[in-house]
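Hello everyone,

My group is preparing for a crystallization screen and wants a predicted model to guide construct design. The compound we'll soak is S-adenosylmethionine. Before spending weeks at the bench, it would help to have a computed complex in hand. I've included the protein sequence and the ligand's SMILES below. Output in structure-token form would be ideal because that's what our pipeline reads.
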Amino acid sequence: MPNYSDIRKKLKVNVSKPEQTELAHLTHFLQTIDNGAKRYFEKEAQNYVLSLQGSESIVEEPWYQGYLPLKWDVPFPPPENPTFKFIDLFAGIGGFRLAFQNLGGKCVFSSEWNHFAQQTYEANFGEVPFGDITKIDEKEIPSHDILVAGFPCQPFSIAGVSKKNALGKKHGFLDETQGTLFFDVARILKLKRPKSFLLENVKNLVSHDKGNTFKVILGTLKELGYNVHFKVLDGKYYVPQHRERIVIVGFDKDVYNGEESFEFPKMPENPPLVVEDILERNVSEKYTLSEKLWNYLQTYAKKHKAKGNGFGFGLVEMDSITRTLSARYYKDGSEILIPQEGKNPRRLIPKECARLQGYPDDFQIPVSDTQAYKQFGNSVVTSLMQDVGKQILKVIQTK
Ligand SMILES: C[S@@+](CC[C@H](N)C(=O)[O-])C[C@H]1O[C@@H](n2cnc3c(N)ncnc32)[C@H](O)[C@@H]1O
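Reply:
Good plan to model first. Here are the tokens for the complex, ready for your pipeline.
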């Protein structure tokens, strides 16, 4: 039985730069070899293999016979008997993939353009995501039951309705979103019509541009024929981190008539974990703040306190929870600092960041610390998203 790790070596699945689309095709093909979605990736995958090995080397029929039955020796292999299909957009390092695979889902397509994030994704799931979503034709995406997307949180402005009105043009909400990454989500929903979707973003999306951005997003989703539910959820009920995110869930009205009984998961009374629960005992000295940086942070904080701006850094209390881990954590780590006896405080190590986002300890981190901080800071509290997914499945698996 061939192992993925051997095939990976033989077929040079080595993500070293952005947009190695051939590797995305090959790994997507291997992941879907036992289902109908494979036809979306087969031709390009075969071309790639032929370009490496030449046609004479392929003696068996079909050409991929030598890779069967494939043993997925990666930390998070696809489920053996999946009960639903999903796609993972703006996939990052796969926080959603982890959650939805745990629920029995089969991922049939992923997209993430950052090649460092792709490295982490491939090391854990055995799949290289496709790159820039704006360049992907929605017809190239396999059918799926749930579309999942944590689209980037950089605030994006949506062209004003009034401007187009002034030009006397007729338009819909979808039109309004052209040029934004949300538009890419919308065009995929429009063509592929999954039964449900789960979108996630920063809490501020709701108030961005005086509420206009969120209004257009909801309007677009409704215009596409989806019944929409949304709520701000805090990761602190799953991990010791205060992390509020807007979660938007929708169901196809053609299937559910807008009558699905969906409920967001109920949160317990109190956060179940405290910071101390996720800390490593022996941590390298390199994570302790230098005298220079610690002095700088304290002086900076004092200055701001004097101005009434509150503290600049977040020294955590061991029996409490942390502030929100951000993608900027690699810069100075100031939002979450761990006090140490007789020493300057230290930053979290990447493994602790993983735990703070609900990742299990066998999640592989093949990249530098800087990249790892960015990746976990951008990610989701996977355990929380898994519970949201569970609630979605209660609806879609009954009809
Ligand atoms: C907020 S993060 C989502 C992280 C993800 N939910 C996870 O669990 O790791 C958004 C991701 O979208 C990616 N991204 C931004 N623009 C993109 C594009 N045009 N095509 C594909 N990915 C993109 C970024 O590199 C980033 O990793």
